[in-house]
Amino acid sequence: MAWWLVWLLLGAGQSLLFYYGFDRNPALSITDGMVSMVLFSALALAAWFPLKFLNRNDTRFPLLIINLLAISAVVLLVWMGLVYLILSGIFPDTGNYGAFWRGTISLRLGTGVLLSILVFLTYYLIISYKNLSDRRLGESKLENILRETELKMLRTQINPHFLFNSLNSVSALTITDPDKAREMVIKLSEFMRYALARKDEQPVTLRQELENMKLYIDIEKTRFGERLITNETLSRECLELKIPNLLLQPLYENAIKYGVHESTGTVEIATTVYCDSQSVEITISNNFDHDAVMPSGTGTGLSNVRRRLDLVYGREASMITRKEKGRFTITMRLPVNTLQ
Amino acid sequence: MEPLKILIIDDEAPARDILSHYLKNEEGFTLAGECSDGFAGLKAIREIKPDILLLDIQMPRLTGFEMLEVMDENPVIIFTTAYDQYALKAFELNAADYLLKPFTAERLSAALQKARLKCEAGRQDGGTPSAVIEKRPAGAPSLTRVVVRKGTAINIIPVDEIRYIEAQDDYVMVYYRGGKALKQQRMKFYEESLPDGKFARIHRSHIVSIGEIARLEPYGKENYVAVLKGGERLPVSRAGYRYLREELSF
Lengths: 340, 250
Hints:
CATH class of the largest domain in chain A: Alpha Beta
Helix content of chain A: 55-70%
Oligomer: heterodimer
Largest sheet of chain A: 5 strands, mixed
Order of helices and strands of chain B: EHEHEHEHEHEEEEEHEEEEEH
Number of helices of chain B: 7
CATH architecture of the largest domain in chain B: 3-Layer(aba) Sandwich
CATH topology of the largest domain in chain B: Rossmann fold
């Protein structure tokens, strides 16, 4: 709409120029002006398509200029030819239209070149704006995909050794204590279902997460017997808050790896959960063998949890680890509202 | 023929239970003892002198591999573990077999037959050499500790406490804060396994903890000696000097 209005105004301008500058024949001037501009407008619209096509791939600059010049030349030629044909068709009897035409040819050419430049500049503006927003859209899409992929990768991979050691315990229990063996198979199944089934990043309630972590620890208790004890202090009102699933698993795995696996004595894993209106604080701690020189881990467990917190909560979540007096403590603070 | 004595070393009670259960049905073997960690294992090995060890790898304080490094006795080893990535190392150590948990009674039976053959061969040729791993497995994490023996005591030395290591024929002398100990190991192994950037092989015969170097002094023409914080003077080769220059950027 605005497009045609602009051209109408341009047509009026051109008519006035013709009228005052050359032939004081209003009918001829107005018709010529309007026909010229309507035609130019149509041709300019038609030129959009080759231009858009040419601009699809980032063409090199010199080639672009040549293309532009070619398109402009074609547009100008066709435009002027058509105007002449139509106008001499409308005013066949005035005979001297040819003279009028020759007189105004330089003006026409000038207007044509000027308009071409304007039109192409406008087009380029539109195209580059579109490209930019397309790219932005693509980038943000890509960013989302990356984020999701990373979250998927960071989601805890259950350590296969845990599985095989547990199955070995089951195999032993079938002989020494079949009831306990059955119990362990059931716990293992429930835990594996929780760990494997949730393929996508689904938040769970803290209660669900802690229940499943209890399964995990119970299984480890079967392996290590009296050497592993647990202690929980949980505020009831926090348990319905949502957290990313399996977020706590690496923390318990860490406690068992550096506590129980490296100690010959008893290891206590303590869990406390507190919350206020803004945040929930989860603390998991274990004592460890002071004399043990720890084997080097790959260090990925906890840093993966950190990265996951970053991706899910941004800067609103924190995780602090502390090692003092033979006790290793991880304190995690999460905002309450993000995952409701 | 006398039955072969077997010692089980595993930190998980159920894992020991299943082994002792399987062993009840094995003819020609007798279960001589069970231990739940490496230190108790070493003591039991000295006392019982088992023919065959059923040995877990991941255990508190001392891993199965570290036990072998400090052991005088030379029983035939069958590793039992849930970790498959140590198999290559296990066979480099001349283990009779490598059982991945959980395993069947038949699988253990087959391993015991192999161990029996090894025992018989061992009695004739006087035993196989003790555990030396010459090459560090590719991609293995760098060492965090070294296990040494002083008399009957086993010491676990964190690598941070190692001052320097000296080549002595087929052995190395490890100097650490609080003493020194001989280990049957190659310089090459330590050169590759100690954490990068903390240790430098300054000479064919010495690997030194970079933090222990007090200064470098010129020695003769174009030669240097490293003076350690403890006062020791160690020769520095040209390659060693170049490496230190690069590492310490002077």
